[in-house]
């Protein structure tokens, strides 16, 4: 296939349309054009065309990935899922995530620590944090490291006491119904029975 003309796509950075003599066209990145030496009059073979399409799809996945991480943090698993939802092929999505990991734009360890701390500050307990990090695709060993780090900053029972003093100022620890309702609140937030009991005991003195 011969290249008839190449046009810059308006409002899309580094994107061009490559028109062929048979009426077909292909939207590609500037990097793809340079790599394959595409220019007007160039006769591209079928194999080269397939390689060009494959290479450009890989670039598209990286471009999508960069756009996503520029707005918020992602774990490797969630970023790959997002790329698949955008229509990227599994192989290209995986390669894009790996490339961003190498550039340190995606870092599961950093993500887990920041997100785990955020959840803790929001009043979530150990079980809830563990479940949420697991949902984000974080490995078990890394989750355990994050939980240990959070415990170093504040013990779970201390966190419960802190919430009791702000959200449950009238808590006396003497009324059974009050104890049951308040305990249910903390259980839903992922705290253990042991930490809840310890916090209630200390606040009832």
From TrEMBL:
Where is this protein chiefly located? cytoplasm
Q: Which InterPro entries match?
A: RecX_HTH_1st, RecX_HTH_2nd, RecX_HTH_3rd, Regulatory_RecX, WH-like_DNA-bd_sf
* Signal peptide limits: none
What protein am I looking at? Answer: Regulatory protein RecX
Which part of the chain is the RecX first three-helical domain? 61-100
Summary of the function given for this chain in its UniProt record:
Modulates RecA activity.
This protein's species is: Endomicrobium trichonymphae
Q: Which Gene3D superfamilies did the record assign? A: Winged helix-like DNA-binding domain superfamily/Winged helix DNA-binding domain (1.10.10.10)
Domain RecX third three-helical residues, every copy: 154-199
* Localization in the cell: Cytoplasm
- One Pfam family matching this protein: RecX_HTH2
Q: Give me the segments passing through the membrane.
A: none
Q: What's the family?
A: Belongs to the RecX family.
One of the GO BP terms on file: regulation of DNA repair
The record's keywords, sorted A to Z, are:
Cytoplasm
Domain RecX second three-helical, by residue range, is: 107-147
Q: What is any one of the record's Gene Ontology cellular component terms?
A: cytoplasm
């Amino acid at each position: 296939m011969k290249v008839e003309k190449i046009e810059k796509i308006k409002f899309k950075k580094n994107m061009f349309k490559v028109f062929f003599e048979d009426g077909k066209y292909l939207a590609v990145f500037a990097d793809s054009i340079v790599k394959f030496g595409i220019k007007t009059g160039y006769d591209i073979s079928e194999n080269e065309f397939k390689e060009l399409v494959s290479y450009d799809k890989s670039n598209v996945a990286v471009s999508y990935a960069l756009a996503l991480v520029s707005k918020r943090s992602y774990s490797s698993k969630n970023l790959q899922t997002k790329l698949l939802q955008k229509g990227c092929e599994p192989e290209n999505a995986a390669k894009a995530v790996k490339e961003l990991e190498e550039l340190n734009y995606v870092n599961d360890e950093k993500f887990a620590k920041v997100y785990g701390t955020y959840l803790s500050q929001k009043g979530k307990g150990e079980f809830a944090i563990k479940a949420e990090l697991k949902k984000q695709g974080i490995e078990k060993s890394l989750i355990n490291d994050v939980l240990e780090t959070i415990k170093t900053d504040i013990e779970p029972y201390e966190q419960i006491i802190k919430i009791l003093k702000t959200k449950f100022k009238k808590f006396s620890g003497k009324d059974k119904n009050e104890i049951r309702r308040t305990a249910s609140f903390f259980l839903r937030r992922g705290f253990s029975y042991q930490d809840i009991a310890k916090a209630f005991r200390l606040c009832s003195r």
